[in-house]
Amino acid sequence: MSINNQQDYRQYFRSAANADDVWQRLHSVLAEFGVTHVFYALGYLADIISQEHLDGVLQQSSIPHKFNYKTSYPDELLRRVDGEFRLEQDLSALHSVIETSPFVWSDREDYQAAMSINNDGSEASFWFDVKLVGVTLPLRFGTFGKGGMGLYMSRLSEQQFHQIWGNHKDDIISIISYFDEVVREKFLDLLGISFTKREKDILAFLAQGFSAKMIAKSLGTKVNTVQNQIMELRRRLGAKNNVQLVTIALTFEVI
User: Which residue from 176, 200, 192 is spatially nearest to 253, judged by alpha carbons?
Assistant: First the structure.
């Protein structure tokens, strides 16, 4: 496909019919740069990451409390540790939480930096030893929103990747930025983030400081019903309390 200028990418993504369509459009655009598989994740920093600087090494204790992701990565890439994919041990995911600069998978300096915040040496070893070709672009949104886009170029050599990355880095970053913007604006269901009108109403009332009893009275329903709906929302969004629930909703601009 051909896009005349960078601004047209935003409209191209925005005109997608649904979440599946925008996902396919992203792959179509990125294929021109040799990208074969994509990993897209957005999360909320529910727990402030505890960091200690000891001899210049960053100690990482946790990643965002809740990550929603969509991926076209092949199974063998996802299940590289004990046959199970674990986001909390993924180098690019950890890098995306801490850093804002791109993480080039084959770059030893980037690899060593990511290693310093990883808790599992076997996972880190996999990334570099098999010489995966790709890059992860950290994403930021709102006050607490963090995420990342992993771009895997399974058919490219390191030399080919660096040539494309060197020539089109700004274009690729812009495309990912436009895609992320449009997903958060129109297609959050791509990541399994969706709400009924009633759920949005409850979140809006919580944001105004309403209690479950007050919300129930406003909606003409039972207090237990509202309490159960709030607990379900907290479970789905990984919120520990109502304040965190509202902050997450505001971060993703649900309300």
Answer: 200
List the structure tokens of 113.
């930096």
SS3 of residue 150 by DSSP: strand
Question: What sign does the CA torsion over 142, 143, 145, 148 have?
Answer: positive
Domain count, the chain: 2
Asked if 173 and 224 sit in the same domain, the reply is no
Domain of 115: which CATH number?
Answer: 3.30.450.80
Whole-number Cα distances in Å, 19 to 158, 173, 179? 32, 21, 11
Q: Tally the C-alpha atoms within 13 A of residue 100's C-alpha that lie toward its C-beta.
A: 4
Block residue for tokens 């080039």: 104
Sorted by sequence, the CB contacts under 8 Å of residue 158 that are 6+ apart come out as: 106, 131, 133
Of the residues 159, 174, 191, which one is the last residue of a structural domain?
191
- What's the chain's average pLDDT? 80
Residues 181, 160: Cα–Cα separation, whole Å: 29
In CATH, what number is assigned to the domain containing residue 227? 1.10.10.10
Cα→Cα distances 202→107, 143, 185, Å: 47, 22, 20
Residues 149 and 108 in one domain: yes
Instruction: Tell me whether residue 1 is in a domain.
Output: no
pTM assigned to the model: 0.80
Q: Which domain holds residue 221?
A: 197-251
**32-70 residue pLDDT tens:** 999 999 999 888 765 443 344 333 333 444 444 567 889
